[in-house]
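Re-run requested by the PI after the first attempt was lost when the workstation crashed. Everything re-entered from the original request form. Ligand of interest: S-adenosylmethionine.
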Amino acid sequence: MRMCSGRRLLYCAAYSGFVGLWLGNCAPSSADGPGRFALVRHKRPAGEIYLEMNLAWELHRHFEWLRFSSSSIVRLASCACGSRTGSFIDGRLAWTSIRCRPAGPTGFSSEANRIKSQKMSITRSLIKRPPEIDPIAFVPNADIYDLDRAPYLWNVDNIVVGTQTNIWGWCLPHGGRLDNTQIVINGRSFNPVRTSPKGAYAELYPWHPNAALAAFTLQISHQVFDIRKEPEISLSCLAKADRGEDAGYTLDLLIADLDFVMPPQDVAARIGAADLLHYVMFGRAIYRGFDKALQKNFGKSFSEFSTIVDWGCGSARVARHVTKDLKKNANLVGFDIDAVAIEWANKNVGPYFRLCKTSPPLEQATATVDVVYSYSVLTHLAAETLATWVEEMARILKPGGIGLFTVLSDRAMIALQSGLARPALEAWRSTGIFDSMSNLDIKALDVAVDYYRNVWLTRDYINKIFGERFEIVDFIGSFHFYQDLVVVRRR
Ligand SMILES: C[S@@+](CC[C@H](N)C(=O)[O-])C[C@H]1O[C@@H](n2cnc3c(N)ncnc32)[C@H](O)[C@@H]1O
């Protein structure tokens, strides 16, 4: 960390594996935060030089400059520019990044002096830029930016219980206001403490004010709230003035699950579960979310149905909770194309799971199922495959049977737009589906390389594919992170 005094300053340093860039009017300060600059950090993923500049320029004045500056830096350094993003703190640019890949063997370092002198002229052109440029124009796909509809995105990164409970996580500040967030655990409200700015969040969510300040910590004294005495905790991250029903997902954790023996790493990795905490917490949260959706729309829990199907069950991360709810003579069947996950689930959870193929039919008789639920399967299937599976779901459900399917839709598009190219958004809007992005998570399985995708659907498209065979009962936005939930009833 380097601080600079109160004069316009431009500084560029380049040395082994580190490229630093400071510019702007720096106010002395002892911690990272709004209103100051000088934070520079870098990563070097696979041959890329990665710059992060923490600036205090008023962004709307300097938009054009940013474009100009990044391409200039790139040109001066003989690099090809990868991407630019940014984040605002109180209307000022807090963070931006430029990713550059060195074009030749010389890269940045050997050009450092030349870069230094030429950047002075970039700074001068910055000062001359007109102030009227719209900051939103910076955000790719800005036409679907709408903070009021933005998902309450957050996560718990770690929980450590010692002499007190420490929780680390991140949460996009509600409405962009840093003091507007509360973490609610089993009905008790706690104020998270925001930690230093992190460019990674701002890069992922450049449309969200103060995204760079998403990271938080929470220290809870056991005298105030003793997590060790709770068999289960339900955590939510809410605005202080809440949006009510639309308040986003909870993360749920059975404390006993911290002793759970996870499936092998490759099996867990195929469903994107990095570690034990996230495997068990997300499994429980998704189960709770499905159960809440059943109660909300039909006044019944899983335990009140006789035949339940988990389509795309993986290693039964969710189904293991549903099996505990089954009443006598009730029956659950989980289907998946992943033979190793199915074998593991049958050995470790119970004999409920069957292998299926990438195309219908399932080994399930017609009109025999009361509830089929499916977490993150329709989010991976291209248009034609997706349509045949929706039809298969209609086949196995009884008339009046219930379907719960997660999808990536407009909220996910709002959340993840910065990673998508403009043509992707345009394809999504014009055809209702964006299904041309491949996903390699299950590449170890014996499926066609282009079978598994990341797939976004518009609300109209969802209405169209379900509308013929199903009545759409509910649409729950941000059911779990980016995934929305479509609740349907078989006609
Ligand atoms: C993102 S994972 C979710 C797994 C599980 N629902 C969970 O939440 O742990 C998607 C799962 O869908 C499975 N899958 C993909 N295509 C399928 C199909 N046609 N039928 C059944 N499962 C499928 C994959 O093998 C993978 O386990």
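Saved to the shared folder this time. The chain has three domains: 9-138, 147-248, 262-275+293-490.
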